[in-house]
Structure formats: structure tokens, C-alpha cells
Amino acid sequence: MRAKDALGQSGEQVAADYLEDRGIRVIDSNWRCSSGEIDIVALDGQELVIVEVKTRRSRRYGDPLEAITRAKLLRLRTLAVLWAREHNRVIGSLRIDAVGIIMDRAQEPSIDHVRGVA
Fold first, then answer.
1. All domains of the chain, ordered by start, with CATH?
2. Who wins on pLDDT, 104 or 26?
3. How far is CA 3 from CA 7, 9, 25, 55, 56, in A?
4. Which one of 42, 91, 108, 115 is least enclosed by Cβ atoms within 10 Å?
5. Residues 6 or more apart whose Cβ sits within 8 Å of residue 27
6. Which of 97, 101, 89 is closest to 114 using CA atoms?
7. Residue 15 to residue 68: CA distance in whole angstroms
8. Order of strands, edge to edge, in the sheet holding 47-56?
9. Confidence category of residue 74, pLDDT binned at 50, 70, 90
10. Tens digits of per-residue pLDDT, 37-50?
11. Cβ–Cβ < 8 Å for 93, 47
12. pTM
């Protein structure tokens, strides 16, 4: 596995643990289809939450959250509908969240969680 992929996978696990610790139940991860990928699918009460996770080793090239484009956020809405259709779920309320993680080897991960980015 490439170092970048391993970092991303580690970041997604950190994000999932962080969300679970805050009462947001992770129900799927790394869901893929021909239109793209959803990092984390979760439930916050009855609300379906689609979570985009960006992980970096440092802020040297900017904050991880800056890498989430408007186009990506629009694609996540489409992916949410496709995920719900495949899993026979009705979307009552949908929220798109972003989690940015800095995983500096010398420190505990730094986590920024932004609710409702789109």
C-alpha cells in the first residue's frame, strides 16, 4: 500500500472513532460506485451524515479542509442519494460534514470537524 493511501486509511479510522465518541454512529465506510466514493456514512440521530475526510501530515501545503472543493461537495450529495438507493434507505434529513486531520508522527492527531459544509 502506498504511504499516501495508508495515511488516508489511518485518518478515516481516526475520524470514525472521533465521530463514534461523539454519538454519531458510523454505518458504512469507503463505499464506492462508478460515480465516486464516500469516506464515511453515519447517523446522527435520524439524520444521514456523509463525511468527507482529508488527512495530512502537516499544514505545510495548507489545511486539509481546504482540499475539499465545491465540486466534491456537490458530488457527495449525488453519492448520498446513490448510497441510500443501494441500501434501501429513505433520506429524510441529510448533512454533509468534513473532517480534517493532521497526523504529525510526534503528536496526537489534530482533528477539525465541520458540520453541514454543504
1. 3-114 (3.40.1350.10)
2. 26
3. 6, 10, 28, 12, 11
4. 108
5. 41, 42, 43
6. 97
7. 16
8. 25-33, 36-44, 47-56, 94-102, 110-114
9. very high
10. 999 999 999 999 99
11. yes
12. 0.94
Site of grid cell 495508508: 6
Which residue type, as a one-letter code, is found at position 27?
A: I
Tell me the three-class secondary structure of the chain, residue by residue.
CCHHHHHHHHHHHHHHHHHHHCCCEEEEEEEEECCEEEEEEEEECCEEEEEEEEEECCCCCCCHHHHCCHHHHHHHHHHHHHHHHHCCCCCCCEEEEEEEEECCCCCCCEEEEECCCC
* 61, 34, 52, 5: CA torsion to nearest 10: -50
